[in-house]
């Protein structure tokens, strides 16, 4: 049941937003130039060199031996990738039975 008469929108449908007379490359020329020259405007910063933040050259070898022991070694990672997981049953085992009952 329609309580209100539909509104006639004929005047609004005559508006053409496509602008067929517009030359789009010329219209957006400013933005096209910005895009084409985007690598010329990459902001740069001076490198931060502070002795306080410098790394001790002996630290890197030490870190490779002692750092992050909770991560698996390269050999263990290789083994983990190539181990096949056990096949698991369906997530909703009862769903298959429900289909059989309704068929």
Which terms would index this structure?
single chain; flat; 103 residues; mainly alpha; 42% helix
Number of strands: 0
Q: Tell me, rounded to a whole number, the average pLDDT.
A: 75
How large is the radius of gyration? Answer: 33 Å
Judging from the principal axes of the Cα atoms, what is the shape? Answer: flat
Low-confidence stretches: none
The secondary structure category is mainly alpha
In sequence order, what are the helices and strands, one letter per element?
HHHHHH
Helix share bin: 40-55%
- How far the N terminus sits from the C terminus, by CA atoms, comes to 39 Å
If helices are DSSP runs of H or I spanning 4 or more residues, what is the number of helices?
6
What fraction of the residues are assigned to beta strands by DSSP?
under 5%
Largest sheet at a glance? none
Account of the protein in words:
The chain has about 100 residues and is mostly helical. The two termini are about 40 Å apart. The mean pLDDT is about 75. It has helices at about 10-15, 25, 30-35, 60-65, 75-80, 95-100. It contains six helices and no strands. The longest helix has 10 residues, at about 95-100.
Quick description:
This protein has 103 residues and is an all-alpha fold.
Secondary structure layout:
Layout: H1 10-13, H2 24-27, H3 29-36, H4 59-66, H5 74-82, H6 93-102
């Amino acid at each position: 049941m329609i309580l209100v008469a539909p509104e006639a929108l004929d005047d609004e449908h005559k508006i053409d937003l496509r602008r067929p007379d517009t030359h789009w490359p010329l219209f957006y020329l400013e933005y096209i130039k910005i895009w084409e020259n985007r690598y010329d405007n990459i902001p740069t910063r001076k490198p931060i060199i502070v002795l306080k933040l410098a790394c001790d050259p002996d630290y890197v070898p030490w870190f490779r031996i002692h750092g992050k022991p909770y991560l698996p070694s390269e050999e263990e990672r290789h083994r983990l990738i190539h181990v096949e997981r056990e096949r698991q049953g369906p997530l909703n085992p009862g769903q298959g039975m429900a289909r059989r009952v309704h068929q």
